[in-house]
Amino acid sequence: MYIYDEIDQKLVDERVAQFRDQTKRFLAGKLSEDEFRALRLRNGLYIQRYAPMLRIAIPYGLLSTKQLRKLAQITRKYDRGYGHFSTRQNLQLNWPKLERVPDILAELATVQMHAIQTSGNSFRNITTDHFAGVARDEIVDSFVWCEIIRQWSTFHPEFSYLPRKFKFAVNGAKSDRAAVAVHDIGLHAVKDEKGEVGFRVLVGGGLGRTPAIGFVIREFLPWRHLLTYIEAILRVYNRYGRRDNIHKARIKILVKERGPEKFREEVDAEWAHLKDGPATLIPEEIARIESRFTRPSHLPLPATDAGLEAALAADRAFANWHKRNVHPHKKAGYAAVTLSLKKTGVPPGDVTVEQMEKIADLADRYSFGELRVSHEQNLIFADVQLSDLHSLWQEVKALGFATPNVGLLTNIICCPGGDFCSLANAKSIPVAEAIQQRFDDLDYLHDIGEIDLNISGCMNACGHHHVGHIGILGVDKSGEEWYQIEVGGNQGEIRPGRGASLGKVIGPSFARAEIPDVIEKLIECYLARRDSDAERFIDVVHRIGVEPFKESVYGNADQRAAHRRGQLASA
Amino acid sequence: MATLIKERRIVADNWHLLERGPKGELPEVPARGEVIVPLALWLARREELLARAETGTLGAWIDANEGPEALAPDVQRFPLIAVNFPRFGDGRGYSIARLLRERYGYKGELRAIGDVLHDHLFFMVQCGFDAFALREDQDAQEALSVFDTFSDGYQTSVLRPVPLFRRRLGAGKS
């Protein structure tokens, strides 16, 4: 955890006072609905379908058990007893009362938390690899860089009214577990031949209704120049990003309209004025931020544990869980563990207050009092001793968080959808549940192997459907809910050689009840065509193309034409 | 008439803002009085207006879709430059203000005009504005309280050119 100093704390406290005053003026009729909207959104407060929704920031997904207990307490006191972890690594409450939100923010501030810039046309919560600091392929600890950028972006006076929201991701390891290519700006840490740390900078990626893969604006940006360079990008965007059409206002549209080369020239011209200025980072600041992070005090342990090996051999259910939900750690004798929030029948990402409190207790006992929220909407205990894995598994299982499906078909990323969200065209949670029910055989799931299935209830793409190996999008057709299927998306280069890609729509959409059958056909198509079980679904799609998958769902081109003729004849 | 806050006080305003006509035509410049002319007018009639500028009664205003670059060689001729906010959510004026102050060294009055609201003044001040022609419905007395909303800021800004991380370091050493 990054521990606030006095100034960090004071700014958050002052934010609470500011929002309390704004809410008071709104309730007194001194602020119009429209004006208050811009202010409440940058404090994470939406007015939703049934009630307000409050999005609480969990900077880069890192949470202490003290904070989690406070979140549980707030959820119990001000809400209906459960919260929703989102794909931006935030926590959303769906039923708070508008007039009590200042009190919620005040309570959050007591544990160094807030809802700053979790919505609105502002620089949003920065996301990163949920294995930051523990991954074996680490280049830098991305938390440190996330915190530096968090501070720079918090209440930035020049960039507080951007044309549109701005999403930023940092990846500090060789594998890209932060999906940097589908963010407004993505940083991928690299080292040059001298071992100096820098960043490959990608700009103009994103999901939403115009999905795009970011382009590499700079192959190697030395770390000292990080803030001045971001400032140059943001200034070009703030000045020239479109403000006439909300759907064309993201930076990806500016990059597309200018062309990447022209955009790069403009950024470089702006940067020439800022480079080497006072915002140039210094080693002392990096060291200061690093030193304010609490670090687990790992014990010197052997790389293997005999008790663990025995339990794996004796207990197949435990071995299944270990295979999917336990991840390697850079320190010998430790592992990272995923608590799956994807149990069939529970909306993905949802957690009750009782569960929050029990998770906090477990994290205190097993993982140095800290945990992470992943953008796949699971929770991570990052520092668990190998010798504790079996007993942790038993406790997690009792809580319902031991579904051994991380990386598998039922580990679905899913937005809250039409059950909660006023933007949604269709429900998403019942679709996830129907798929999970269809694929409830664990052996079959393991046989299918690694696959990302993502569901969004509308084209705003909060469920990241464009980068699911299979993506499902809820669409509205004259008041009815339909679902479009995409195939071939990939969130980033998690495995070497398979970079980020966007899915392609395979054809006309389906009714909700048809979706499990469609998914089953796609899976059967994959299983029939894979070379071996080492070749994943996404690998097969890239090898043979989308057409065979289309055929498996709609029949071949002739059949489709005949079908259409039949439809026309009967019409 | 909008209320003017200048250097954190409510003050009388003698300046007259000249706007374009309904078809975008440039206005006439009255012979007397303190006037703020559109950037385009200054650029079109620069030669004839140079003498007027010498008298200190000529200001210029920049719209959000215009750049301060065109005014760069002339900024010191003006005792007042205004930047228009067509809508409160339009953030371009913040960048324009910083460029005028930081890049072009403008030292005179920098005035925010247009949709200028209570809750936006704090960021405007950080970006170099020192005068605010509040939208008519705003309570100026109440707005005076917002300048101290935050006691510090992380970034470089016109008010704090040295970022917090360098100042923190200095404080740690002393």
Description:
The complex is a heterodimer of chains A (571) and B (174). Chain A is of the alpha+beta class and 571 residues long. Chain A is built from 19 helices and 20 strands. Chain A has four domains: 6-109, Sulfite Reductase Hemoprotein, domain 2 (Alpha-Beta Complex); 127-290, Sulfite Reductase Hemoprotein, domain 1; 306-399, Sulfite Reductase Hemoprotein, domain 2; 413-570, Sulfite Reductase Hemoprotein, domain 1 (2-Layer Sandwich), CATH 3.30.413.10. Helices cover 38% and strands 16% of the residues of chain A. In chain A, β18 and β19 form a beta hairpin. The radius of gyration of chain A is 24 Å and the shape is globular. The mean pLDDT of chain A is 94. Chain B is of the alpha/beta class and 174 residues long. Chain B has one domain (4-147): TIM Barrel. Helix content of chain B is 27%, strand content 18%. At the A-B interface, α1, α2, α6 and α9 of A face α3, α4 and α6 of B.
List the helices and strands and how they pair.
The complex is a heterodimer of chains A (571) and B (174).
Chain A: H1 6-27, H2 33-41, E1 45-47, E2 52-56, E3 62-64, H3 65-78, E4 82-85, E5 91-93, H4 101-109, E6 127-128, H5 142-153, E7 168-171, E8 185-191, E9 197-203, E10 215-222, H6 226-240, H7 251-258, H8 260-274, H9 283-291, H10 306-314, H11 316-325, E11 326-328, E12 334-339, E13 350-352, H12 353-366, E14 370-373, E15 379-385, H13 389-399, E16 413-414, H14 429-438, H15 442-448, E17 453-456, E18 470-477, E19 480-487, E20 504-505, H16 515-529, H17 537-544, H18 547-554, H19 557-570
Parallel strand pairs in A: 6-7, 7-8, 16-17, 17-18
Antiparallel strand pairs in A: 1-2, 2-5, 3-14, 4-5, 4-13, 8-9, 9-10, 11-12, 12-15, 14-15, 18-19, 19-20
Helix pairs in contact in A: 1-2, 1-4, 3-12, 6-8, 7-8, 10-11, 12-13, 14-16, 16-18
Chain B: E1 4-6, E2 9-11, E3 16-17, E4 35-38, H1 39-44, H2 46-54, E5 58-62, E6 80-85, H3 92-103, E7 109-114, H4 121-126, E8 131-133, H5 140-143, H6 164-173
Parallel strand pairs in B: 3-4, 4-5, 5-6, 6-7, 7-8
Antiparallel strand pairs in B: 1-2, 1-8
